[in-house]
Amino acid sequence: MRTERDYEVLTNEAGGVPIKAWTVGVPFEDEAKKQLRAMAALPFVHKWVAVMPDVHRGFGATVGSVVATAGAVIPAAVGVDIGCGMIAVRTTLRAEQLPDLLGGVRSAIERAVPHGRTDNGGRNDRGAWREAPAAHREAWGRLKPGYDAILEKHPRLGRGPDLGHLGTLGTGNHFIEVCLDEADHVWVMLHSGSRGVGNRIGSHFIELAKEDMRRFFIQLPEADLAYLPEGSEHFEDYLRAVGWAQEYAATNRELMLRSTVEALQASGELPEFSLTQAAVNCHHNYVSREHHYGKNVLVTRKGAVRAREGDLGIIPGSMGARSYIVRGKGNAESFHSCSHGAGRVMSREAAKRRFTLEDHARATEGIECRKDADVIDETPGAYKPIDAVMQAQASLVDVVHTLRQVVCVKG
To answer: Does domain 86-281+309-328+383-410 have CATH number 3.90.1860.10?
Structure first.
């Protein structure tokens, strides 16, 4: 690996396109490099694979990767949390207007937005609506025609929650936060995606792609890199379904933000407030039709945010670490992309073995959040240092606001 300007270049003994990695000064695991080399060897990858500083091995494809493809799409390169992303908005509140004890603020959010998962996702799942609110049913009315069109050809995708998950948080690294910026303005920020319906769409088309590879005797370095060629039976179906899931995910975030703000306004914990600007709402697991280096391509960002010149994006840190509102610089070599967060430095199981409840309590001191064993895998030490991640991508984005959380809700 050699360093060229502000990124590193990985050679690929198996051939294929180069790998340009904005990883100077941050950990870059060998398993992630192996995954990336397998992807870079595919014949339809355009120019190179771009790697963001939050890179780490993922299921199917590498988190923190940006791949432009011509004539094919790789469903696992998007993954199953289709359209996962961030939304944030600044309020008229200031830090000094927050109560000294923030437990009531956290409780108001937890009551307003279903989060977590119980009953194995069944009828009594606390993370889904039993009766969705009117605004959610109205939003679902706009989404449902597209969903029904997808189900006409792929009816098995309808076997699970859809409206019941709209406007809900989920589990894992999804969160809702109240944050303060560098001027002590209060922000609301959250992270979630397309929930169960997006998972079904992603899983279904990953398996269809694998079936196609077996049917046509196509051998791949990694089975999860199975692809759908343009013109094949499922290519357009997948793009239509993934596009719909991305719309569902963006709507999911908008509804949760609305529910959170309304809950805070009605909580009795805060003075009257309003919002001061349009929300920043951005995907970081998705496919987009774009034009790069003279060619129309499909750009798949898995754990990466689009950062064209002037684009606003969100790069969250871990629980207890800073987050950033950023403006893209339009760096062409990154396919106009930046990282989607700090990026894991160890697996969830490794984090559970490594850290104690006392470690987690120290790392999240001063933040109103869960401090129990079920969130140890999300403790700050399980992630890369966000300062190093931001330094590594200084040529990709400018920092507009620096946020520190004071309340964090997790499923």
So the answer is: yes
